[in-house]
Design brief:
Number of helices: 13
Helix content: over 70%
Shape: globular
Oligomer: single chain
Length: 324
Amino acid sequence: MLSYIVRRVLQGFAVLAAMSLLVFAGVYAIGNPVDILVNPHADQREIARATAALGLDRPLVEQYFAFIRNAASGNLGLSFAFNVPAIGLILERMPATLELAIAAMLIAVLLGVPLGLWAGLKPDSASGKTIMAASILGFSLPTFWVGLMLIMVFSVWLGVLPTSGRGPTSDLLGVPVSFLSLEGLRHLVLPAANLALFNLALVIRLARTATREALQQDYVRFARAKGLTERRVVGVHVLKNALVPIVTVTGVEFGSVIAFAVVTESIFAWPGMGKLLIDSINVLDRPVIVGYLCIVVTFFVAINLLVDLACSWLDPRIRLGEEA
């Protein structure tokens, strides 16, 4: 187990190195932030001074290796727009994004697993067919349109929920969170529901398929032959084995939710990392863009490792190490 974890961590560093090279070359080769950040009436001397101050007068290769040296010590450079450490800006916005992503995944899992389980146990019932039809809508409807409709219905027409913002925050173990207050929860409901829609549909379909497959297995027939109650058969034998693919996919999707919360954060003016990324792209704030992508890839690597460990715990047949 330990050797497997060490090997995966080393692979993660290799992925980060390759990603940083591709992203750095792509971001730093496109456009010139000096054209945006400097007064358009500035003369060539002022433009040259600003270019040198941002370190953009050096060759691209030299800029990249300087970035790698600084990143190894936790320094992702200074934001071009705010002139503060980029890592500080990103970490300042991270709690908002993580709160939104966790709330969305909780909605998806807490609703999706029982609905998918019911649809798998009662596939021919009206309720089971309705659940599956609704899941198709979850896949089909675009996130930005759903977000606008949620605002229109619950904020404009009914006036029960706020249209944007995060609401008041409170410190929880030193981290600012908004779900500890009623007003904060009111601000969280719409963006979390919007972000959860696709994953809710995905979890429903995964849970249904896994349930149908588990019901056909010999261990379920044997459990019923022993005289176990249907609740115990479903709750212990069916559900536990159905959770393996659900944990695998939802774990990976959690990383995707963090990475692609940009649309939801933009629609609801949620002050997270995605909103910061859009603002940084608009002004070509390269250190913030590259730093954001590095942090997101780190999340993906860590989440994939945790998912593998969780699947091994849920299903003892899965072995980590040489056989993996």
